[in-house]
Specification:
heterotrimer, A alpha/beta (387), B mainly beta (167), C alpha/beta (383), B: mainly beta, 5-stranded antiparallel β-sheet, 10% helix, 29% strand, extended, C: alpha/beta, Peroxisomal Thiolase, Chain A, domain 1, 2 domains, two-stranded antiparallel sheet, 14 helices, 11 strands, 18% strand
Chain lengths: 387, 167, 383
């Protein structure tokens, strides 16, 4: 049996902001409408819809998928919400891929939306209840604990300094200056990062992406439809995802083995055997600066422990051998969780079409990868796109 | 295709203050059944011991105690206490509360850590707090020991261990 | 459907009002062990895993974190859909139809007894701007819908009561059921009001329990088991998402899903082509409304069919022989799963004293509950 090919034919994205005037359904609508317009389609052309959004606790609505339905174009359509924590933004187009690749439909709308500012006093509060209710929550953990624990373990394993890590934030926040959606684009220096407030040693405030509101959407189409709609379809060549154990303290945090498993699944499907040579542009998830390095290694884009050195050498700059987070990433554009992941997929889509404007990486890239991470250091979601 | 003039308006603090809002504070209460594995684990903490589960097939001594081995997918064969000492796998020094509010300068800092417990299989750690130690003195690889609540104050919770301290 | 997909293993715990001796992980593990045993597979041989769950029903912000271990799915492709079990099953069918997956395990469970403020959680699903400030119990939407439905179709409260009496009596024959009872119409009609015409006995009571189902591609299914149950059609739809824009007299989502599922399965005359149906009966009137929306009953006739015994065990089209959500218990995201399990048992002819003779084809339907207009339908067959 031959496999059905699936292409991205349109993309839409909102501005990422600290507090949006618009509601979640309204942001979903704006991103969806833009994606449909770009694809030259109307909502009636959409056969099925899949929506990605992170915890209900942000928006303060139980069954958030149903709440966002009307904005995401789900009325009178097969509509479903997928949810793999922070990995959702890259999983959502994978979910859309399932819809089209299965033959269930030819046109699928994929929407991701997040309104974190609804959660008071701070969206951080929603993260207390990600820890095990019986064995961990009584210790009153914060989300930052687990990142600080992981960052230290990673730094210690390879003898990295905070400067090594901060270079990622500098690169991405600067890259974001050219992104129209960017919330926190800034020409910052390593000193700015190291001098920012210490939240949980070794994590400083500027090591972290901000809480944001925003939405993004893409339209996926089968081969026949895609070729009718555009002469520049971008194909979903490989998809992979993986979930590690909930007993997160029982595995070594220095390496994201679940990202490697997800990447291997996607690469196998895409026929990629030497990812560091075959992939020309990458958008690994960077909610914290060290995470980009962690994820580059998990994605097999470099040897373990090498990502920091490559970053220092400019290898991952927009003009480097492997431009990484040319969008500006979560650190620069902002981090409305699920929408961020889809923003990354959209960035690869634009880069491969050579339509990224000032952010365009040189060399006419043909293959790119986007990745997101989620849960308690557990989820890897990976998508490989090809021009 | 060009992505520009992206929609959505970000509100400044001032604009946000002036915006009409509806707020809702939900009363969400849960009472989770501990079940067999975690039930035994908590009972054991009350008795001043850390309980692990052993799987004969893979040979792992797993923490926290659990009713089944998730890798071999079979019931665990027995429960056994491990030591209340261990090694710091990684740690952080935290200056904020769970809701992102900042600790006051004179308040003690939280030092969460992943502690690999002696007697369990290599790598089998739990998250807990470190105490009785200068934050600057904490190191990965440091040996630590549990400091327990007095027996009559224990209630079958992870907080029956107050923290781990160097020894 | 591109390639036929079959159910090759089911695992189910019993359902009960409370389950204090077992954690949610252990509950799911119990169901998973049975499902894998039936399928003859170790979880390492399952290609991918799906859980249907909602965070606030679990009391976690990201429940997806806590699903892999008890499914034997550590370091495997696992996903959560915040949807009904039948929708999750539909995603599983899609994955197999991509040609890249051979076997999929689908899980859902309910630990509703652990949610101490269940009404508050339900109210938390209401639109925060338009509806929630009214500070009504979420069931008020069901009351509104029931009123409009009865008014427009001519079905009666007594006929709704017949549904409850039938389903709770059916549950007496189901060892899994949590809320079986032998009731009279008067018992129902005199039960305390919730949001009239909705009364206390009109609403299904929560139950705890877990379900896992293993799906396989046609080739795999034939190699794995003697009695594969084929999914001949499966579809889910959301109707009008905003409650204030809805036509409450009928269920648009059920009608849309039925049209598509019937087309996939080649069902022309549901009353004739189906041997039984498991219909969402989270509220009594919902069974009637769904029967009409699906096209099993004509508008205004579902109550009459119920009263005249067409939908009872032994009738022309038995509906909710399991006891339905009214009799077995309301299990939230697992609701559709309980009905799929019943259908599989009927189609394997393993349903014991409630077996429908010669059952060949059945329909299962679910709805995501107040305030949604989302539901799913699957057509299952043993041939």
């Amino acid at each position: 049996m031959g496999f059905r090919k699936v292409a991205i034919v349109g993309a839409g994205i909102t501005k990422f902001v600290r507090r949006a005037q618009e509601t979640g359904p309204e942001m979903s609508y704006l991103a969806s409408k833009m994606a449909l317009d770009q694809a030259g389609l109307k909502l009636k052309d959409v056969e099925m819809v899949t929506l990605g959004t992170a915890p209900d606790a942000f928006d303060g609505v139980h069954m958030k998928g149903e709440y966002l339905l009307s904005g995401a174009g789900g009325n009178n359509k097969p509509y479903i919400r997928n949810f793999v924590g922070g990995g959702t933004g890259v999983f959502a187009p994978i979910h859309g891929w399932m819809h089209v690749a299965s033959g269930a439909c030819d046109v699928c709308l994929v929407v991701c939306s997040e309104k974190m500012s609804s959660c008071h006093p701070h969206p951080q509060g929603a993260f207390l209840t990600i820890f095990d209710h019986t064995t961990e929550q009584p210790l009153k953990p914060t989300l930052i604990w687990i990142f600080a624990l992981e960052m230290r373990r990673y730094m210690e394993t390879y003898g990295l300094t905070k400067e090594d890590i901060a270079r990622v934030a500098v690169k991405n926040k600067n890259n974001a200056l050219d992104h129209p959606s960017a919330q926190v684009a800034e020409a910052v220096t390593i000193e700015d990062i190291l001098n920012s407030e210490v939240l949980a040693e070794p994590v400083h405030r500027l090591d972290i992406s901000p809480a944001s509101d925003g939405a993004a959407a893409v339209v996926l189409a089968s081969e026949d439809v895609a070729k009718r709609l555009t002469d520049k379809p971008v194909w979903i060549d490989g998809v992979g995802w993986n979930l590690d154990t909930a007993y997160w303290a029982t595995k070594d945090l220095y390496y994201p083995r679940y990202v490697e498993k997800a990447a291997r699944m996607a690469y196998e499907m895409a026929g990629i055997t030497e990812p560091h040579k075959e992939i020309q542009v990458a958008e690994p998830y960077d909610p914290f600066d060290y995470k980009e390095l962690h994820h580059m290694e998990g994605l097999l884009l470099c040897e373990r422990g090498e990502a920091a050195r490559l970053t220092a050498e400019g290898y991952t700059a927009r003009t480097g051998n492997l431009p990484t987070c040319p969008s500006g990433g979560a650190l620069g554009v902002g981090n409305p969780i699920a929408a961020t992941g889809l923003m990354k997929v959209i960035e690869i889509f634009l880069q491969l079409r050579e339509e990224a404007g000032k952010r365009q990486v040189p060399g006419k890239p043909r293959v790119g990868v986007a990745q997101a991470w989620g849960d308690l250091m557990q989820v890897g979601t990976v998508i490989v796109l090809r021009r | 295709m060009k992505i520009e003039n992206v929609p959505v308006k970000g509100l400044s603090s001032d604009e946000y203050e002036k915006t009409l809002k509806i707020s809702w504070k939900p009363t969400l209460q849960y009472a989770w059944d501990n079940g067999i594995g975690i039930g035994k684990y908590l009972q054991s903490l009350k008795e001043g011991k850390i309980l692990a589960a052993y799987c004969e097939k893979c040979g792992r001594i797993m923490l926290p105690a659990r009713a089944f081995c998730e890798m071999c997918f079979r019931p665990t064969d027995k429960y056994l206490p491990v030591k209340d000492t261990g090694t710091v796998n990684t740690f952080a020094i935290c200056h904020v509360n769970w809701d992102a509010s900042r600790l006051k300068p004179d308040e003690p800092r939280y030092i969460p850590a992943v502690i690999e417990i002696d007697g369990a299989s290599p790598g089998q750690g739990i998250m807990h707090l470190l105490g009785n130690v200068e934050p600057a003195k904490v190191r990965i690889g440091m040996k630590v020991k549990a400091v327990w609540k007095p027996a009559d104050k224990r209630e079958g919770s992870i907080t029956d261990i107050l923290f781990f301290e160097p020894y | 459907m591109k390639e036929r997909v079959a159910i090759v293993g089911i695992g189910v715990t019993g359902f009960s009002s409370v389950s204090p001796s077992i954690s949610f992980k252990e509950l799911t593990y119990t169901a998973a062990v049975k499902a894998y045993h039936e399928a003859g597979l170790h979880p390492k041989e399952i290609d991918s895993f799906i859980t249907a769950s909602e965070d606030f029903m679990e009391g976690y912000s990201i429940f997806d974190e806590y699903v892999p271990d008890q499914m034997g799915a550590v370091m495997r492709p696992v996903q959560t859909v915040t949807a009904d079990f039948i929708q999750a099953l539909g995603i599983g069918c899609m994955m197999i139809n991509t040609g890249r997956f051979r076997t999929i395990a689908v899980e859902a469970h309910s630990k509703a007894s652990n949610v101490k403020t269940l009404n508050e959680v339900k109210a938390f699903a209401l639109d925060p701007v338009y509806i929630r400030p009214l500070k009504e119990n979420a069931d008020f939407l069901a009351g509104l819908e029931m009123k409009r439905f009865l008014e427009e179709t001519g079905n009666t409260e007594e006929q709704c009561a017949e549904v409850i009496v039938k389903n709770k009596a059916n549950a007496l024959n189901n060892p899994y059921a949590a809320h079986a009872a032998s009731l009279t119409i008067d018992d129902v009609l005199s039960s305390p009001p919730i949001s009239l015409p909705l009364k206390e006995l009109d609403a299904a009571k929560p139950a705890d329990g877990a379900i896992m189902i293993v799906l396989a591609s046609e080739k795999e299914a034939k190699a794995l088991c003697k009695k594969p149950i084929w999914i001949r059609g499966i579809s889910w739809f959301s109707g009008q998402g905003n409650p204030w824009c809805r036509d409450f007299a009928y269920a648009d989502y059920a009608q849309l899903a039925a049209q598509k599922a019937f087309a996939m399965a080649g069902i022309a005359n549901p009353l004739k082509d189906l041997d039984f149906a498991e219909i969402c009966d989270e509220y009594s009137y919902k069974e009637l409304q769904h029967l009409e929306s699906i096209g099993i009953a004509r508008k205004g006739e579902a109550g009459f069919l119920t009263q005249t015994g067409v939908t009872k065990l032994g009738g022309l089209l038995p509906v909710n022989v399991s006891g339905g959500s009214l009799g077995v218990g309301h299990t939230y995201e697992a609701s559709g799963g309980m009905k799929v399990v019943e259908a599989v048992m009927q189609l394997r002819h393993e349903a014991g004293i409630r077996q429908i003779p010669n059952a060949k084809t059945g329909l299962v339907q679910s709805w995501r509950g107040v305030p949604t207009a989302t539901g799913a339908i699957a057509i299952l067959s043993n041939e």
